């Protein structure tokens, strides 16, 4: 079995677009109408975002992004692991990548938004294992209906 390589990538590449389509399908299926805040590929290619893919034998099997919201606070966005890779530790490796990059960028805190539904339970557990705690909603997730915001100091 080939090793997974995590590297900065272009979210507009066709194979990444396919991975992001699966990510969006999952988030929409597990969120109420209007409760899905996943960035699209154009948003993920913005100037304040670092985007990584995880590839096995050249095929994307995961992704994550770091959105630098200001000089101190970043947001973990678009964590997705292909079904075939879930439980392999890839999600943890992607979260570690964001934590390391956020620290290297001088950020002092990191946040994320996920959902309350059972579909996001594994994600919440993963984030908790990495030191994230449930906390108050931050913009633009303040409606409080579905978003489950988590933060951690760096």
Question: Top keywords for this entry?
Answer:
single chain, 154 residues, alpha+beta, Aminopeptidase, seven-stranded mixed beta sheet, 4 helices, 29% helix, 31% strand, globular
> Which structural class matches the secondary elements?
alpha+beta
Helix content: 25-40%
List the strand order in the largest sheet: 1-2-3-4-5-7-6
Low-confidence runs of at least 5 consecutive residues: none
Biggest beta sheet summary: 7 strands, mixed
Proportion of residues in β-strands: 25-35%
CATH superfamily of the domain at 4-109: Gcn5-related N-acetyltransferase (GNAT)
Mean pLDDT: 94
Span of the ends, CA to CA: 34 Å
The CATH architecture of the domain at 4-109 can be named as 3-Layer(aba) Sandwich
Silhouette: globular
| Number of DSSP-assigned strands | 7
For this structure, the CATH topology of the domain at 4-109 is: Aminopeptidase
By CATH reckoning, the class of the domain at 4-109 would read: Alpha Beta
- Count of helical stretches: 4
Oligomer: single chain
Order of SSEs, N→C? EHHEEEHEHEE
Rg, rounded, reads 14 Å
């Amino acid at each position: 079995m080939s090793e997974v390589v995590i590297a900065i990538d272009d979210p507009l590449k066709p194979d990444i677009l396919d991975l992001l389509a699966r990510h969006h399908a999952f988030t929409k299926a597990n969120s109420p109408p209007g409760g899905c805040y996943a960035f699209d590929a154009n948003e993920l290619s913005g100037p304040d975002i670092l985007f990584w893919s995880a590839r096995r034998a050249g095929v994307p099997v995961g992704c994550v992004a770091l959105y630098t919201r200001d000089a101190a606070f970043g947001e973990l966005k678009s964590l997705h692991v292909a079904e075939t890779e879930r439980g392999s530790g890839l999600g943890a490796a992607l979260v570690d990548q964001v934590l390391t990059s956020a620290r290297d960028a001088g950020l002092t805190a990191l946040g994320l938004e996920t959902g309350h539904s059972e579909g996001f339970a594994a994600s919440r557990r993963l984030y908790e294992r990495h030191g994230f705690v449930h906390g108050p909603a931050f913009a633009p997730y303040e409606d409080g209906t579905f978003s489950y915001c988590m933060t951690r100091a760096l």
